[in-house]
Specification:
Number of domains: 1
Order of helices and strands: EHEHEHEHHEH
CATH class: Alpha Beta
Mean pLDDT: 82
Number of helices: 6
Strand order of the largest sheet: 3-2-1-4-5
Strand content: 15-25%
Radius of gyration: 19 Å
Low-confidence stretches: 167-173
CATH architecture: 3-Layer(aba) Sandwich
CATH topology: Rossmann fold
Shape: elongated
CATH superfamily: HUPs
Number of strands: 5
Distance between the termini: 54 Å
């Protein structure tokens, strides 16, 4: 009787930091016979803030149109992300049992949505990238990887991305 595969959750978006984390997992840690990979992207639901009192019908219709436009734009971005992730999985060089999950969150911390998905799927491991925010920006904005690290019930691997090395390599490629 084959053992049930462990669920490995990889937090993704369309950034080079995210791609780096996924690539690290696939090239260094993935065990096809033992792992099922869930690529999770938490998408914030578009919000439009308006005053409650004194809104004209024209203003309400304009706000509704803005919300529809923001929603359609976000859906197009999520379709592009899905295509991007499928291409990464196809290009990795081997067959990977995987699922792409785009979950939406309405409020709270982005990391909270990722940790919730890990809990819901009894993930054995979470892999995420790090944008390398400075101390001040991380303090003000909050760090998704930091949130995941401190709230997940399973082990977490945070893949640091070397921006300087990335830009140096891309500059070298462009000069040739």
């Amino acid at each position: 009787m084959a053992a049930e595969k462990k669920t490995i959750l990889v937090a993704v978006d369309k950034s080079v930091c995210s791609d780096n984390a996924l690539n690290y997992y696939l090239t260094s840690l993935h065990r096809p016979a033992e792992h099922r990979v869930v690529l999770v992207h938490a998408a914030e639901v578009p919000r439009i803030v308006t005053p409650f009192h004194g809104v004209s019908i024209d203003e309400a219709e304009n706000t509704h149109s803005m919300w529809i436009e923001a929603t359609e734009k976000r859906e197009a971005e999520l379709k592009e992300l899905h295509k991007h992730l499928e291409k990464l999985m196809e290009d990795c060089g081997h067959e990977v049992d995987h699922e792409i999950l785009i979950t939406q969150y309405h409020h709270g911390h982005l990391g909270e949505a990722i940790v919730q998905q890990a809990d819901d799927r009894s993930a054995s491991l979470i892999v995420t990238g790090s944008r390398g925010l400075g101390t001040l920006r991380r303090t003000i904005l909050g760090s998704v990887s930091d949130y995941i690290l401190h709230h997940a019930k399973c082990p977490v691997i945070i893949c640091h991305f070397d921006h300087d090395k990335y830009h140096h390599v891309n500059e070298a490629k462009a000069s040739h």
